[in-house]
Structures are given as structure tokens and as C-alpha cells.
Specification:
By secondary structure, the protein is an alpha+beta fold. It has five domains: 82 residues, 3-Layer(aba) Sandwich (GIY-YIG endonuclease), CATH 3.40.1440.10; 140 residues, no CATH class; 113 residues, Nucleotidyltransferase, domain 5; 140 residues, Nucleotidyltransferase, domain 5; 52 residues, 5' to 3' exonuclease, C-terminal subdomain (DNA polymerase, domain 1, Orthogonal Bundle). Helices cover 44% and strands 17% of the residues. It contains 20 helices and 18 strands. The strands form four sheets. Strands 12, 13, 14, 15, 16, 17 and 18 form a seven-stranded mixed sheet that branches. Helix 12 links the parallel strand 10 and strand 11. Helix 4 crosses helix 12, helix 8 packs antiparallel against helix 9 and helix 13 packs across helix 16. The longest helix has 38 residues. The radius of gyration is 31 Å and the shape is globular.
């Protein structure tokens, strides 16, 4: 079968395998809907794929997957290393349920040094298209923020945007608190500023010893010239730099190294990544891949390394807690990514062993914390089941809230929780329009109708419980929408605020015949309901503030039909700004080139409709 072939009912494995090549490549197993179940690579495609269709498969997971196969698609590659690279790209693209999946798709942050007479150091994430130099990647945003903060204290490199820099007539607050040398107003010459930039670059590249030697020589020169104030400043700078370097330096490690440790327990996994660049520990990050059943530490490490470095810079050396499967092949693939040799190591000694042990300890602690949180979530869900007298523990809950300022920029939020907690990928916001400002009932009705119309069309599954932040009126709107859309099996619960809006005094408005219910303040079920309600409230307020800010930054001329960018520009230029346009009469507006009498009247009416 080719890549263009469509899945067919049933799957004739025997005839498919008879024509399958023995070259290296990648195979994809699809179900009856054409959804990719699994992606794998093989040195010999026929041998590898045929192993799935033998009797007495050892794993229940594999037997379940094979029973769903309706098509197998293959892509032949030149080498096995190319197959491994393609396999990881396809896993990232299709996210098959039977593969190990790395959920972290965010690009890692960098520090950017701009091209300028007085360069700027700043946080950067995303494509590295701006001219200048990039340092990193750093494992987390706090690591970048901390490093930038240190660089400002040590070397006083400006953090401000070029537009701010070019329009200063006097030093800003950064100069007053000794975080900048005020190059914007010429308080430092370019040569001195370049020297500070060079020191900052040396520090970022791990040459802090060289920086200290330069500063010591500069201090001695200043002292010899009797410039004691300057010498004292350099002395303090050297002291701070030495303290920071001692805290950040990884003893016994030079160059660029990643240390990766995995902890597996209870079907869950945590992978800790420590990044060392130029001998400096840039920090660490905890990742939680999705793990199929019966996955070994070796298989996990192989899948993780392949996916993790698809869109990241590969260091020359990677120290891992579990020996990956086919390490030579993995090294070859990573070398293809990097363009130079890459070494994997796991049986390490001395200082490296201590760093690997620290990474493993961090992974175990992060996983224990995550499992404890999930255990607490299970307890609260069971308490909620008992409190609401449900037959089963709910597996999906949604909560709606409305936010506005006296009817302005009304936004509805929908947050989703499952047994693992917030499911942020399913969150939604709804900008409410065409209602009477301040009508919360109409806003709730519109949001619910839009949400559940989409769910009926198959966007996502329906919730077991629908929470509404509000009382009987809001619950009535929810019931009307569900009845109108013929949605059944969803329990609606209103969360009415208690006396003085104090937490713990909420009244639950149930959609069945039981009437209002008040749970004790110590109830775990109530704590879960409060968490869901507060998250909906937070998400709604954030959306409302964004819409309000957007509306207030929008010219009222943009709302007038027929007023394109050129006409707006011509009008503002003619009258010297919006205030002049607002005070103009219809006859004056009509004299502007491109503005007809009819459009002038529309402009006048729009600006004076109050």
C-alpha cells in the first residue's frame, strides 16, 4: 500500500506482508477511521511489521492495537538513522495513542543580544530571526529572568526597547537604581559600553574567569591612577561575579551537556532535564510524557530523546539515567540533527554521577508530588460523587462564568476539569455580542448555546457535570439551552454565592428535584467545586480585561462602515486628530477628499450618538 491509499474495511496482513520491502523505513498503523494508532521505525520493514501479526503476542496492549489495524502505510528511507528521525517527526505530527508522547511543544527561551551601537539584552522565545546573538536555550523562563537580572546588576546592559531608548532626554529609573549606565543620554561612551557587553558575552559563554581577570586588571589600573571610586566599584563587581560564578558553576563539567533522568511509578513518568552550557548550570525543567502501558525505562528514554531534540539544539554530550535502546543509532540520528558528533553516556562516575543522582532525585520528587496531587483529586471527586448522589465518579466537568464592567466587553468563560485536574487545552472563551449590556442571563444563554452546539457537532465530549457560577436564573438558562439542543445526561449545578460572598457559604442549586444544598466548609467536594468555580472566574476576568483593553485602544472611526485606513488617515490629518474630527460639523467633514456628504453624516452621528 502507498501513502495515498485509503483505509479499507478489514486488513489482509498476509497479502500486505508478501509485497512489503526489506529496506529500512517507517510504518504507520491506522484504524478504520484513518487515525494513526502507532508509528514505528525498522531496519527491515518486512521483518518488523510481520512481528505484529504472529500468534501469541506477549503484550495485551499490542494485541489490542493489532485488533484495530485496518491499514498499514510505509515510507522507505535510505538509512535506519533517517528512519528514526522521520519516526519522531511523525509521532509529533500524529500523536498516536500507542506511542510515548512528549507533551511539551513549547520552544525554549533564549537571551538575545541585539545589533546596535548600544546593544540590548532581552528575553526571547520563538524563531531566531532578529539580527544579533542568541544565548541558550535555557530550560525555563525563570532561568532566563534570573540570568538577565544578574547581567543587569553586574554589567549594566540596557534592557529597554529601541523606541524607548531613542526618545529619552534624561536617564530613566534603571539608571537611578544602578541597573544601566544611561547610554541613551550619552553618560557612557561606546567603547566603555562595548567593554561591558564583551564581559556579559564572556559570562554567558562560561568564561567568567576571563571576565574577572579583566576586571581585576582594570581595578588595578584605576587604583594606580588614584581613581579610587572607580576601583571600589570594580572591586564590588568582582565580588558579586565571583559569588555568582561559584553558585552557578558545575564543578568538573565543561562545555555543553544535558543531564536527563527519568522516574517511573504507577504508570506515570517524570523526566528531569538539566542544561549545562559553557560549564554553567542554566537550571532544570520537569516534563511528564504520556506513557503507554508496559513501557520500560529504556524505551522511554529512546522515545524521549528522539522527540525532545527534534526542535532543540543538541549538545555534544547527553548524560542519561537509563541506557536507551540502540544507543549507536540514536547517536547517529542526533548527530544528523546537530551536524557534529553526539555522545550518550549513562554509566558515569565521580562528579557526573553526583549530577545524575541529583537529576534522578528531582525527577522522583516531582513525580511523587504529581501522584500525590492526583490522589487528592481522586478523593475530592469521590466526595463530589457522594455529595451529589451520582452513580459514578464524574470524569469531565465544565464551569461557566460571565465577566464585564457595567455591561462593557462581556466575556463568558468555559473551563474543563478531568480526573487529572484542569484540562486547559479544552478551555474556551466567548465574546458576547448583541445583548442588552449587563444582562447576565442573556450572556449565559448565548455562551451555553454556542458551546453545546459545537459539542453536538462533535468538537468534544459532553461533560458529566455542568457548573454555573450563579443562582436559579443562570441554572434556568442552562436547562433551557440543553433542552433546546436535546442534550441529555448532563447534571447542571449552580454555585450561588453565600452571605457577604464569603467562601464556604456557597449554596448549590441542583437541576433535579432535591432543591438547594449547602455543603459544610470542610467538605472536599466543596473544595473541588470552589477550585473549578475560581478557575472559571479567573479565566473570564482575564478575557474581559483583554477585550476591554482592545476596545479602548481602538479608534471609534474604525467602527464606521466605509471608513478604511486611508480615509481615516486623511480625516485625522486634515483635522489634526480625533478631537478635531469630533468637533467638526457635517459640512466641514464633507470637504475632506474622499468623504461624501452621506459618509460625513455617518461620521458625525457615530461620534455624537450619546
Amino acid at each position: 500500500m502507498t501513502e495515498e491509499s485509503a483505509p479499507e474495511p478489514g486488513f489482509d496482513a498476509k497479502s500486505f506482508l508478501a509485497g512489503l520491502t526489506r529496506h529500512p523505513g517507517v510504518y504507520r498503523m491506522l484504524d478504520e477511521d484513518g487515525v494513526v494508532l502507532y508509528v514505528g521505525k525498522a531496519k527491515n520493514l518486512r521483518n518488523r511489521v510481520s512481528s505484529y501479526f504472529r500468534r501469541n503476542l506477549p503484550s495485551p496492549r499490542i494485541r489490542s492495537m493489532v485488533a484495530q489495524i485496518r491499514d498499514v502505510q510505509v515510507t522507505v528511507t535510505t538509512t535506519e538513522a533517517e528512519a528514526l528521525l522521520l519516526e519522531n517527526n511523525l509521532i509529533k505530527q500524529h500523536r498516536p495513542r500507542y506511542n510515548v508522547l512528549l507533551r511539551d511543544d513549547k520552544s525554549y527561551p533564549y537571551i538575545h543580544l541585539s545589533q546596535h551601537t548600544y546593544p540590548r539584552l532581552t528575553f526571547h522565545r520563538g524563531a531566531r530571526k532578529k539580527p544579533g546573538r542568541y544565548f541558550g536555550p535555557y530550560p525555563s523562563t525563570p532561568a532566563v529572568r534570573d540570568t538577565l537580572n544578574l547581567l543587569q546588576k553586574l554589567f549594566l546592559i540596557r534592557p529597554c526597547k529601541d523606541s524607548f531608548f531613542e526618545n529619552r532626554s534624561r536617564p530613566c529609573l534603571q539608571y537611578q537604581i544602578k541597573r544601566c549606565t544611561a547610554p541613551c543620554v550619552g553618560l557612557i561612551d561606546p567603547l566603555a559600553y562595548d567593554r561591558d557587553v564583551k564581559h556579559a558575552v564572556d559570562f554567558l559563554e562560561g568564561r567568567s574567569d576571563q571576565v574577572m581577570r579583566d576586571l581585576v586588571a582594570e581595578m588595578e589600573t584605576a587604583s594606580a591612577r588614584l581613581e579610587f571610586e572607580r576601583a571600589a566599584q570594580l572591586r564590588d563587581q568582582i565580588t558579586r561575579l565571583r559569588q555568582i560564578s561559584e553558585r552557578q558553576y558545575v564543578s568538573g563539567e565543561g562545555g555543553d551537556v544535558d543531564i536527563i533522568a527519568a522516574a517511573l511509578e504507577g504508570g506515570q513518568v517524570c523526566v528531569q532535564v538539566f542544561s549545562i552550557r559553557g560549564g554553567l548550570n542554566l537550571g532544570n525543567r520537569a516534563l511528564f510524557p504520556s506513557l503507554p502501558e508496559e513501557t520500560s525505562g529504556e524505551a522511554l528514554m529512546t522515545a524521549f530523546l528522539g522527540q525532545y531534540y527534534l526542535s532543540r539544539e543538541v549538545p555534544p554530550q547527553i548524560i542519561v539515567s537509563h541506557a536507551p535502546e540502540e544507543p549507536d543509532l540514536l547517536e547517529e540520528m542526533l548527530a544528523m540533527q546537530r551536524g557534529h558528533k553526539v555522545t550518550l553516556a549513562w554509566n558515569v562516575r565521580a562528579e557526573r554521577a553526583r549530577w545524575l543522582e541529583m537529576a534522578q532525585r528531582n525527577a522522583q520528587m516531582s513525580l511523587a508530588t504529581r501522584l500525590a496531587g492526583r490522589a487528592g483529586m481522586r478523593e475530592r471527586l469521590e466526595a463530589l460523587r457522594e455529595a451529589l448522589e451520582l452513580e459514578e465518579v464524574p470524569t469531565r466537568m465544565e464551569c461557566f462564568d460571565i465577566s464585564h464592567s457595567q455591561g462593557e466587553a462581556t466575556v463568558a468563560s468555559c473551563v474543563v476539569f478531568n480526573p487529572e485536574g484542569p484540562l486547559k487545552s479544552d478551555y474556551r472563551r466567548f465574546n458576547i455580542r448583541d445583548i442588552t449590556p449587563g444582562d447576565d442571563y442573556a450572556a449565559m444563554h448565548q455562551a451555553l448555546h454556542r458551546r453545546y452546539t459545537r459539542l453536538k457537532e462533535g468538537e468534544a465530549r459532553l461533560p458529566d457535570i455542568l457548573f454555573i457560577d450563579g443562582g436559579k436564573g443562570q441554572v434556568r438558562q442552562a436547562l433551557e439551552v440543553l433542552e433546546e439542543l436535546q442534550v441529555e445526561g448532563v447534571m447542571v449545578v449552580g454555585i450561588a454565592k453565600g452571605e457577604d460572598r464569603r467562601p464556604g457559604l456557597e449554596t448549590l442549586i441542583l437541576s433535579d428535584e432535591r432543591g438547594p444544598s449547602i455543603l459544610p466548609p470542610s467538605s472536599k467536594a466543596l473544595h473541588l467545586i470552589q477550585q473549578v468555580r475560581d478557575e472559571a472566574h479567573r479565566f473570564a476576568i482575564t478575557g474581559h480585561r483583554q477585550q476591554r483593553a482592545k476596545a479602548r485602544n481602538t479608534s471609534p472611526l474604525e467602527q464606521i462602515p466605509g471608513m478604511g485606513p486611508k480615509r481615516r488617515q486623511q480625516l485625522l490629518k486634515h483635522f489634526g486628530g480625533l478631537r478635531g474630527v469630533s468637533s467638526a460639523r457635517v459640512e466641514e467633514l464633507a470637504k475632506v477628499p474622499g468623504i461624501s456628504r452621506k459618509l460625513a453624516q455617518q461620521i458625525f452621528d457615530s461620534l455624537h450618538d450619546d
